[in-house]
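## retry 2 of 3
previous attempt timed out at serialization; input unchanged, resubmitting
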Amino acid sequence: MKINNLSMLLDMMFWSVFFRQSRGKSFLQRVQGKKWVNLMRLLLALFIMVMLSFSAYATTENATTGPYAVSFDLNSSSKYSIQSGMPVQEDIRTAYPLLIRINNSTEVQITVFEYNDLVDSTPDLWQTINSQGLARLGLRNITLATEMVIDSMSAYGLSGKDDNNKTLYSAYYWLDSNKCECGPVSVGKTNVVITSTLPLNTTGNLLDTMHVIKGLAASQGPITFAPPKA
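## retry succeeded, writing output
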């Protein structure tokens, strides 16, 4: 419904209530009742404005890194930039990084690891490997979250605190993990890793809206996002 139509509907509702409640009342009581109606109309108008300002922040970002298209929505009022990093080629895989920077500091890194051949993608194995990796970085109080879903795929997350007591969140999932006929393991070729030092709710918005797809190769420079004014 359009905003002007909603305003008209609110007017009709309020005046209907006002006239029903003002029958048999004195002029002073009617004036006081009218003030109450105007106050309620003002409060509802403010509520609508607040809801519209919140919805203005919600925007889906589309970026590319190597042959992968990445989309997400931070739903944040902060000004940030998105930058594709240079691919890093290793013996068994190629890493395609995507950086989200706030105030010239990298707060989020999304990396798509593409392996040359099928590798073991069994969650229990990688949960152990990734937990040990965070410990080697000096993080403490490492916590594992299982049974997550990111990009409609099974995922898991880890979190830990650094020496400054700042929390780092990380999440992991495979785009193409499948059960292997060779035994009780899974195999895949494409692993997505997200690390974030943003607040938990903003990181949650990112993970809830993440989508990665291969096939849209493009080179892209830095993008700066400025939230629309309310």
